[in-house]
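Thread: quick sanity check before group meeting

JM: Hey all, I'm pulling together slides for Thursday and realized we never actually wrote out the predicted structure for the chain we discussed last week. Dropping the sequence here so it's in one place. If anyone has concerns about the input, flag it before I start.
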Amino acid sequence: MRTAIIYTRTAGVAPAMMAQQQAACEAACARHGLTVVGRYQDIAPGLTDPATRPGFALVLDHLRQEPAMFVVMTDPSRIARPATTLDRGIRAIGATGARPLPLAAESDWHVD
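JM (edit): ok, ran it. Output follows.
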C-alpha cells in the first residue's frame, strides 16, 4: 500500500481555502492510488519556520511513528516561502524517509 499524509496551510483563518487545498490533495491522492493515512494543517504566515508550527510538527511526529511514503501539499510554499526555510522543511520530511509531493508538480510525480 502506498501511503500519504496531506499537509495544508493558510496564512490566516480561511476555512474555504483550507477546504479547497484539502480537496485538491485528496483528489490527487485518489488519482495516483495513494492511501491517505493522516491530514494535518496550520494557520500561519509563510515566513514562519515550519518547525514552530503545530501541524507541521504533527506531520513529522506521524512520520516518525508510522511512516508514510509521501507528504502531499498544494505547493511547496505551504511548507515555507523563504528558500532556506523551505529547504529545512523538505529536509525534515526527507529525514523520515518520506517524499514531499506538491500538486504544482503533479505531472512529475513518480509514485509507483
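AS: nice. The mean pLDDT is 91. The domain at 22-106 is CATH 3.40.50.1390 (Rossmann fold).
JM: adding both to the slides.
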